[in-house]
Amino acid sequence: MVATDWGETLVSRGTFAGVEVLHVSRHGEGHRRLSNQVTHRANIAALAELGARGVLAVTVCGAVDPTVELGSLTCFDDLHFLANRLGNGELCTFYPEAGDRRRGHWIFEGPFSEPLRAAILEGGREAGVPIRDGGVYGHVDGPRFNTRAEIRGLAACGVTHVSQTGGPEAVLCGEAELPYALLGYATDYANGVQDEATPVQTLLDMMAASTTTFASVLAAAVPRAAAAEPAPTGTVYRFESG
C-alpha cells in the first residue's frame, strides 16, 4: 500500500520481461471499483512517488468506428475528454487549490508519448499481433454505456473508441510529467454503430480474451519502453519553481 495526498493505492513491484516494473490494477481485485470509483489521482501519484519513468496502460473499449474489428488492438494518438472531470465530479487535476506551488497548465501537441507508442507498436510486430497505429480515445463517464445519440456525437468528433478510465490517466500523467501510452482492445460496437447490438456474451468473451493478447504485446513492448527513456509529453508551464 502506498500513501499519497490523494489516498492509498495498492502497487505491485516485480520483474516482467526482464524489466523492473510497477503495476496498478485500476479496478482492484475482482473489479471491486466501477469506473466512477477508480482512484486515479492516488494511482498516478503512487507510481510517480515510487520512481516510475513512464506508464503503459491497457483498456478494453467499445468501437465507434465501424471499420474497427472486434478483438483488434489500437495504440491511440489522440484524446477526446472535454469534461476533464473525475468520477466524483471534481476537475481532473493535481492542482485543485489556488496557490499550489506545483500548479501549471499542461501544454502539448499530442497527449500520448510517441516513444512509448513506438515501443507498443514494435512490441506488437515482434509478438505477431497487429496493432492499429493511431486512433482517438473517447473518455466517457460511466458506469452506464452510452446512448445512440451520444455515440453519434462522439463519432462526429472523430472518436474511434470509447471507454471509461483512460482520460483521467492521460491528464494526470501529463501533469505529473510521466510519459503515458494507451493500448485499446475492441470488445464490442458502441450503440448504433452496427445495425444489431453486440451480444453481451460476445463482450464478455472478448474481455476475457484480451488478457492474453495484452500480455503478449507487453512482454515485447516493456523492454523497448525501458530502453527508450522517454521524456515527458509536452510541457507543464508552472507559475512557481519547485
Describe it for me?
This protein has 242 residues and is of the alpha/beta class. It has one domain (55-238): Rossmann fold, CATH 3.40.50. The chain contains five helices and 13 strands. The strands form four sheets. It has a seven-stranded mixed β-sheet with strand order 7-10-11-5-12-6-9. Strands 1-2 form a two-stranded antiparallel sheet. It is globular, with a radius of gyration of 17 Å. The two termini are 27 Å apart.
Write the layout of secondary structure elements.
Elements: E1 2-4, E2 7-9, E3 12-16, E4 19-23, H1 40-49, E5 55-63, E6 73-75, E7 78-80, E8 104-107, H2 114-127, E9 131-133, E10 136-139, H3 148-156, E11 161-163, H4 166-175, E12 180-189, H5 200-228, E13 235-238
Parallel strand pairs: 5-12, 6-9, 7-10, 10-11
Antiparallel strand pairs: 1-2, 3-4, 5-11, 6-12, 8-13
Helix pairs in contact: 2-5
Helices and strands, in N-to-C order?
A: EEEEHEEEEHEEHEHEHE
Helical percentage: 25-40%
Provide mean pLDDT, rounded.
96
| SS summary, helix count | 5
Net shape: globular
The CATH topology corresponds to Rossmann fold
Number of domains: 1
Text of the CATH class: Alpha Beta
Q: Main beta sheet, described? A: 7 strands, mixed
CATH superfamily: Nucleoside phosphorylase domain
**From the helix content, strand content and strand pairing, which structural class follows?**
alpha/beta
The CATH architecture designation is 3-Layer(aba) Sandwich
Find the count of extended strands (DSSP E, 2+ residues).
13
Q: Strands across the major sheet, in which order?
A: 7-10-11-5-12-6-9
End-to-end separation: 27 Å
